[in-house]
Design a protein that fits this description.
Blueprint lengths: L2 E13 L4 E12 L2 E12 L10 H10 L2 H15 L2
Antiparallel strand pairs: 1-2, 2-3
């Protein structure tokens, strides 16, 4: 009887003007290859965040959509929010 736990990327979405990257991951518990349970976790990363700990697929998406223009616009937006 072998119980295993694995994490799978279920979905990566790019949304909004500042290209926020939404990540949905599933944690799957299996016994002898038969799925016993699955739970979904979601998180969002923004252009100012460190993505070095993310999956390579997530990093590739972030690096593709977070152009200099997007990062600059995000930083300007963040600075305007701290002035309020």
């Amino acid at each position: 009887m072998a119980i295993t736990k694995e994490t799978q990327i279920a979905k990566i979405e790019v949304v909004g003007k500042y290209k926020a990257v939404q990540i949905a991951t599933d944690t799957v518990i299996k016994e002898d290859g038969v799925e016993l349970s699955r739970s979904r976790h979601r998180k969002v990363v923004h252009p100012h965040q460190d993505i070095s700990g993310e999956d390579a697929e997530v990093q590739a998406v972030c690096n593709a959509v977070w152009t200099e223009e997007v990062v600059s616009a995000w930083n300007t937006f963040q600075a305007s929010q701290s002035e309020v």
